[in-house]
Amino acid sequence: MQMNSSLLMLWGLWDDVYQRCTRLRYIEKGANIFRVVLLRYRGETLVTTDHQVINRGDWIVKIHIHNYYFATLCKGVKDDLRLALLLRRHIMLSLPKLAIYLESMDEKEKIKGIVGTTMLHKGVQPLGFSISDVPMNGYFRYKRWYLRLLLRFIHPDGKKRVQSWKQDMPLKRVYMSKESLLERYGSQNPSPLGELH
Questions:
Q1: SS3 (DSSP) at 118
Q2: Of 95, 110, 134, 138, which shows the fewest CB atoms inside 10 Å?
Q3: What is the arithmetic mean of pLDDT over 142-161?
Q4: What are the structural domains, with CATH classification, of the chain?
């Protein structure tokens, strides 16, 4: 099942309403796969690949994949591998602008890192992310259901593919320290994408 134009248009209208009702900020609307919100971290202690520690109560930038934007990019894509490569490419292209955005924030000094939860976590470790499990409480069970529903619309095989992902695509937490993000992708890095080619 590929998403038809009418359904995509309705999703776009809903996404505008959702954006206005949340504190999510665009990094660059229509050109960046992330939306973000600054908040205090409420989960278990995280240790990043560069040995930084994010504790409960620390300030973080919570990252959200802009699912509607990604769905527009995926329109017409029918192959699993192409879909995965498309997502990875747009994450790669979006991280430098996320780093620059964080550098410009008034709250930069108190931020410990970036954190998100996703089912689309395969292949993100070479980009600098660490991965850990999330507790399957009511909130994360709902989020997993919601993300699977979105993937059902985005993915070309729809319902069939999402059912096969039930075991292979668990919900995970992905995170990176502020220091690692800025070192890899910040404005002081003369070639932020160089090590990813």
A1: strand
A2: 138
A3: 59
A4: 5-186 (3.40.630)
